[in-house]
Amino acid sequence: MTTTTPATPNESPTRSDVSHDAIENLSREDRAFPPSAEFAAQANATAALYDAAAADRIAFWEEQARGLQWEKPWHTALDWSGAPFAKWFDGGKLNVAVNCVDRHVAAGHGAQVAYHFEGEPGDSRDITYAELLTEVCRAANALESLGVRAGDRVAIYLPMIPEAAVAMLACARIGAVHSVVFGGFSAEALRSRIEDAQAVLVITSDGGHRKGKPMALKPAVDEAVAASPSVRNVLVVKRTGQDVEWTDKDLWWHDVVDAQPDTHEAASFDAEHPLFILYTSGTTGKPKGILHTTGGYLTQVTYTHRTVFDLKPDTDVFWCTADIGWVTGHSYVVYGPLANRATSLMYEGTPDTPHNGRWWELVEKYRVSILYTAPTAIRTFMKWGEDIPARFDMSSLRVLGSVGEPINPEAWMWYRRVIGGERCPIVDTWWQTETGGIMISPLPGVTETKPGSAMTALPGIGAQVVDDEARPVGNGGGGYLVLTEPWPAMLRGIWGDNQRYVDTYWSRWNGLYFAGDGAKLDEDGAIWLLGRVDDVMNVSGHRISTTEVESALVSHPSVAESAVVGASDDMTGQGIVAFVILREGVDPGENVVADLRNHVAHEIGPIAKPRQILLVAELPKTRSGKIMRRLLRDIAEHREIGDVTTLADANVMTLIGQGLDSANAED
Ligand code: 7RM
Hints:
It is built from 19 helices and 30 strands. The chain is α/β, with parallel strands linked by helices. The chain folds into three domains: 15-95 and 277-531, Rossmann fold, CATH 3.40.50; 96-267, 3-Layer(aba) Sandwich (Rossmann fold), CATH 3.40.50; 540-660, ANL, C-terminal domain (GMP Synthetase, Chain A, domain 3), CATH 3.30.300. A hairpin with a 7-residue loop joins strand 14 (274-280) and strand 15 (288-293). The radius of gyration is 24 Å and the shape is globular. The two termini are 27 Å apart.
């Protein structure tokens, strides 16, 4: 089936050498899926939200904020006089943990499950809101007993276990600022984050279960803490029972926390009191500590979680598969779902342990109704084949979400058909660590969706696609995604380096937040994300996004996943080099590379035809599943491989390097 057809011709004489689009619009998508009448009739969101936000944006956000429990109301909804440093709900006071836990128990929902926890080895545990309250109170008391005070920083380095959420909520409850570091990041990555934030406490575990084995965490902490004078104590959760070294800063979580009183009086904090720091690696230089505060953040994650996922607290089982080390885990495993009194599934392990159907087994077991995951996972399941999910009863699913990368139209269609049984709306949600919550997404029951498009800015959010001079590109044009209005969950700065905040996000164009992503508008004004602008390729003066070439490759029935980079080329400036993973069972026969090159030329135009296609078994990815094209560029340009500290699996680069010697497909 032809899924994409060439867009506006770009062969006209005036455009043949130098394109005037900041990024070209090459693909076209004609499939669209309107909401069903049944879904629309019960949806949390209605089109009226767009009207309300357009009529008075600030009043709209105030309305959303009123859904939370405030100890003291705000006097100023938005103070933007210190732009780009925002203050939302200034003068207001609240406690985030009280909003996420106590108020639901007080309203009579203590017996409702907050988390169904499933460990990788198959151990499971249900935690009700009443139990969560007890745990959070004990942990808050424990932190205070260790001298942790409001404003102090606490590093959290844990696997996906309930204690991770408890630790975050305990910090929030006492006004301490958490900095979650991915379990699995190196000792040095942990150390530099501890140092930057001057953390006084580290919360970790002996290890976690990953791919059928206990994976140690404590040794990395030992190494990091030995070089971190700011750390007074290390609180260690016993998860795997594996042997650990012990230092005089170390304390067992069960010794300290279990001995505490199970109530804790929560103070309220200013709406602009810091809630967390989360480090993003960025492309160059030292990681940026993205700072988020309480009132605006909680308002936006609660609102987006309710409307984008259509959350019904009494009946839904929500599963966001993200790790808490990623912002998605903060906003949609912990704060948004809990503030909305959701019942969530939390799963410790990987999708292929002990078998490739593990996720679908969990959907069946817990009757998961809303699934939120990343395109990388969907493409992996496509590779494994649709007979695997077919073995499970997934009729409970009713909404599907995607986040983290552009979702290729064919992956979207597969997700819809194979996982969603053709009945579930898909929400492709664009946002960043920096935005704190979802910004661009369809609203299920309202928006007619198109496979591969995040569609439009949510009510209350201002987004545009602009050219180099910040002029809106108009429908059919490609350029840079910018945010035009401050939003409640926006970052409040970079920890310890506010100049870098201004320089990175606010200096390219006056008054516009530059997200760093390329995007285009289709003829209806729907937004299509085109990947990071650093990855845009320049082929004979044509600015081509990696996303469109990758999507063209993934639309070939033999391809599961691909990553495309621009490598320097004597003739064209840059040439397109594609790394391709075939679907399982596809014979990498003689013609596959030539077929794929022609397929791309046919789908989006000859200018996008890859110079070289390399068949590989794996791609380098971050722990949240984003493809690290920078490393592939190093390979394509025969350079030494650069910084690999955020790579999920260090062996991947060696594997790809070996594959290259035997699979050079240049012609
Ligand atoms: C939530 C998250 C942010 C970057 C962002 C984009 C990319 C995220 C989408 C997406 C296309 C999406 N935070 N991104 N979601 N691209 N469509 N729906 O991922 O800070 O880790 O990354 O991720 O490039 O700028 S993040």
